[in-house]
Amino acid sequence: MVAEPHSETSSTPRRRRWRTTAAVTLFTAVLAACGGGGGSGGGSAPTGDVPSNEPPPPVPSAPTAQPTTAADAVRLADQASFGPTEALVTTIKAQGAAAWVAAQMSLPATSRYSSGQGDAIHTYTGTADFCTGRGDDCWRDWYSTMPLVWDFYRNAVGQPDQLRQRTAFALQQILVVNNLDVSGTYGFRNYHNALLAGAFGNYRDLLRKVTLSPVMGDFLNNANNDKDAPNENYARELLQLFSIGTCELESDGSLKGGKCSPTYTNDTVRAYAYALTGWTYPAGGASRYGCWPKGANCTYYGGDMVKVDQYHDTKERQLLGGVKLASGHTADTALETVLDSVMNHPNTPPFIGKQLIQQLVSSNPSSAYVARVATAFASGKYNGFGTGQRGDLAATVAAVLLDTEARGETVTRSAGKLREPVLMFTGVVRALDGTTDGDAFGWWWGDTMQQHVFRAPSVFNFYPPDYPVPGTTLVGPTFGIHNANTALNRLNFLVYLLDWNGSTPSTTVPNAVGTKVNLTAMSADAADASKLVTRLSMLALGRELPATARAEVVKAVEASGSNAANRVKTAAYLVFGAPQYHVHR
């Protein structure tokens, strides 16, 4: 069993212990057989939203187009978007990986979260319950993240800035907040728009934004954190999850000296907790709920947290890396010093770099791959990408995606990665020319598949990055939510899309379109079973199915009758249901 990461403080929010998978799952053999390599393990924003005033990062100079193969184009689409479409594969083939990545980074951020209601939940001063008279969907529209689920899937399926969205999705699984412990639709909207805006910026800037986020401040108890009794939650997770991790690392992500030497002690956490005291919610809250002692603001998510000098500890504090806070320092100085200490720590480049590799490319990257990505993070440069400042995410993401271990036809990849449910939902819908309003992927399929976006069970995300694949020496993070039931439900999802014709629009969802696929384009090849199966396989996998499996799929299509739609449904079910589809490699 994988133990829950260590945390001593009694005020830690609810956390779920990770469960091991008792049975060998449907896809384990496929993942284990992947071979090789090392590695250890709509509309304007409602009131209360704060648009990002941060300038966009410099646009990298466009690399010269170097056409690539269909297989590599599909692979990059799997790694850097929410799934290949025939049009996207054609574009990547023509441009090549580097030119396509550069073009994506130069696109304006067309995707934003805008659905849901505003900040009135934190400005309401009436005597009745806030939702009185606001209809049956009050909690959904004002308190929950369900409106963000709509925007997330609509954008993931239909918007062109795929790499920005995919990078922000990776970042939100590292810098986790959830709607289980915190409520306020407009606040989550602000938080996740900041991740979108900063996806190709600098990780230090993103950490600063996260540290001052009132949603994070509420979630991990750093809002109204008093010097007289500092809460350690945010300080601990800043170190453990958001920057340096728990064990000292070599630059390639391996354990320093071959064993886990702790990066910090509880005294260190305590020092960081003191350094981060003295921040309260931004001004604007006036609710009869969530108001605090004199000098601190009421709960409000409409901006960055602000300092309250009387609650900030000003004593001398020793931080990591020999960094010391002098006696009499201010909250502003302490924050910048905290950020400097974790950004300059040698662990941060490999710790964050490896997680981005795991999110985008491979669960088991080689140590050399991690080292190259860590170098890009530390130097802020990678083959023309980046500003040259430590923590540059454009350089880091480019290094992740353009590395020799991510590209090329003959590379031995250490394992690939199990396609997580979110990417299965979007991948199939995009490949089959579908549309969605996202509603089916929340309480229905999201909960069924244990990945309801924005509702990770704890700050440790939906799954841990070192989850062991049963029966192997590999790690497979997504296997943390994969079991016999969810394996079967991957196939049930295909039945829902293909045999049930998806779902119809809900009358309670704004601008609803339901979730459906469009098989018209594929029907043009339905008469030729071999041609149809090849077309679907090349789109889904970037290659043909193995010969024996392909022959069986062709046989099944031929046996399904002469109706074009039925033939396409049969082929799509078998191709997208194949284990080869559910593993990126």
Outline:
Pfam families: DUF1800 (PF08811). With 585 residues, the chain is mainly α. It contains 23 helices and eight strands.
Folded structure, characterized:
It is a single chain. This protein has 23 helices and 8 strands. The chain is an all-alpha fold and 585 residues long. The chain folds into 2 domains: 47-64 and 78-86 and 97-402, no CATH class; 417-584, no CATH class. The strands form 4 sheets. Strands 1-2 form a two-stranded antiparallel sheet. Strands 3-4 form a two-stranded antiparallel sheet. A hairpin with a 5-residue loop joins strand 3 and strand 4 (324-325). The longest helix has 15 residues, at 484-498. The radius of gyration is 24 Å and the shape is globular. Residues 1-45 have low confidence and may be disordered.
Topology readout:
Layout: H1 28-32, H2 70-80, H3 86-95, H4 97-106, H5 138-143, H6 146-158, H7 162-172, H8 185-197, H9 203-212, H10 214-219, H11 233-240, H12 266-275, E1 279-280, E2 306-307, E3 317-318, E4 324-325, H13 331-343, H14 348-360, H15 367-379, H16 393-402, E5 417-418, H17 421-431, E6 435-436, H18 445-448, H19 484-498, E7 515-516, H20 520-523, H21 529-540, H22 547-559, H23 564-576, E8 583-584
Antiparallel strand pairs: 1-2, 3-4, 5-8, 6-7
Helix pairs in contact: 2-3, 3-4, 4-16, 6-17, 7-8, 7-14, 9-13, 11-12, 14-15, 14-16, 15-16, 17-19, 19-23, 21-23, 22-23
